[in-house]
Specification:
alpha+beta; 5-stranded antiparallel β-sheet; single chain; about 190 residues
């Protein structure tokens, strides 16, 4: 009789554990699906070229691009938050820093062949800058993502989904920067 109880309890525990595992996997799958659905695209809309925000942000995005191409460290530093400017300046002057290597040193990025940000911008025959505004940031101020790419090489439809952006970044076919306005001034972050 005791063996029967032990076997029954083991079977019950085993069945309950299997049911809990299946329920957990189903809930996990639903959660993952919901997250992907909610973050499926980049969560913004392309700014119309005649909008005030576009006119303001495109000048900053262009200034940043020109500073990268001219290797103008001071302009790049001026677009960093005040508390980060000292470290950004030091990193852009240090050829061993990750920021310098990302921006200017091909092949050093993650110890593999890769194009630097400078190279992505420099070789573009028809460099396009697309600005995407993000809803939900209005309460915090203005924020736009600037996508830099060669329109002659890539034909893209915006907004892009997250997976597409990540693939293009990994392949070094585009570069993406986020610019935001705080206290009447535009900034970017160099924390990658």
């Amino acid at each position: 009789m005791q063996k029967e109880w032990i076997l029954a309890i083991k079977k019950l525990v085993s069945t309950r554990l299997k049911v809990r595992c299946v329920c957990f996997l189903i809930l996990f799958g639903v959660l993952c699906f919901a997250i992907r659905l909610g973050h499926g695209n980049s969560g913004g809309e392309v700014l119309p070229e005649d909008s005030t925000l576009y006119k303001e942000a495109i000048s900053i995005a262009t200034e940043w691009k020109d500073a990268v191409l001219d290797r103008d460290i001071e302009v790049l530093v001026s677009l960093a938050l005040p508390e980060a400017q000292k470290s950004v300046r030091a990193d852009l002057k240090n050829k061993e820093s990750q920021l310098y290597q990302l921006f200017y040193d091909e092949g050093s990025i993650n110890k593999r062949e890769s194009r630097s940000v400078y190279e992505i911008l420099r070789v573009a025959k028809d460099l396009r800058i697309v600005l995407v505004a993000h809803s939900g940031l209005e309460k915090l101020g203005n924020g736009v993502t600037a996508y830099y790419y060669d329109e002659q090489t890539l034909k893209l439809t915006f907004p892009l989904n997250y997976e597409k952006v990540q693939t293009l970044l990994d392949e070094r076919q585009i570069w993406v920067m986020f610019f935001f306005k705080a206290k009447e001034r535009w900034y970017t972050s160099y924390e990658f």
